[in-house]
C-alpha cells in the first residue's frame, strides 16, 4: 500500500516508529514487525502521529495509533487514504473506551462491533459511503 496523493500520510520504517507504537500495539508489536516486513501492514506518520495500517480486502484496519491529541487532525487523512485505495470501510482496534464517542463527535460515524473484555479491546467500524466529501 503506497501513500496515495492528497493525504499527509508518509511511510515510516518500522524501526523508527516502533518506540512510539509500542504502547498502542502492546504484545502485538512483534507480529506487527513481521507483518510489516512481509508487506501486509504499513507504518505511516502524519501530523505528529504514528500508525500501523493493514488493508483487509476492502476494509482498512487501524491496527495501532499513537499521537497525543492528534486524532482529530489525522482521521480525515486516514479516511482519504482508505477511499483512495478502494476501501469501503475502516476498522479501528483500541483500548480507549471514549474513542468511539470522540470519533462520532468529529463526524465519523463509527459503531462498536465488538468488545474483547479479556484484552480490554474495542473494535469499531465505519462504512465510508461517500463520507469523504464532508472532510475536504
Summarize the topology.
Blueprint: E1 10-11, H1 14-25, H2 29-37, E2 42-46, E3 49-56, E4 59-66, H3 71-84, E5 89-94, H4 99-105, E6 111-116, E7 121-127
Parallel strand pairs: 4-5
Antiparallel strand pairs: 1-2, 2-3, 3-4, 5-7, 6-7
Quick structural summary:
This protein is of the alpha+beta class and about 140 residues long. The protein has helices at about 15-25, 30-35, 70-85, 100-105; strands spanning about 10, 40-45, 50-55, 60-65, 90-95, 110-115, 120-125. Strands 1-2-3-4-5-7-6 form a seven-stranded mixed beta sheet, sandwiched between helices.
Any overview of this molecule?
A hairpin with a 2-residue loop joins strand 3 and strand 4 (about 60-65). This protein has helices at about 15-25, 30-35, 70-85, 100-105, and strands at about 10, 40-45, 50-55, 60-65, 90-95, 110-115, 120-125. By secondary structure, the protein is an alpha+beta fold.
Provide the spatial order of strands within the biggest beta sheet. 1-2-3-4-5-7-6
End-to-end separation in angstroms reads 22 Å
**Strand fraction:** 25-35%
Extract low-pLDDT stretches. Answer: none
Principal-axis shape equals globular
Mean pLDDT: 90
Instruction: Please outline the major beta sheet.
Output: 7 strands, mixed
Contiguous helical run count = 4
Q: N-to-C SSE series?
A: EHHEEEHEHEE
What's the Cα radius of gyration?
Answer: 14 Å
Q: Name the helicity range.
A: 25-40%
The total beta strand count reads 7
Structural class: alpha+beta
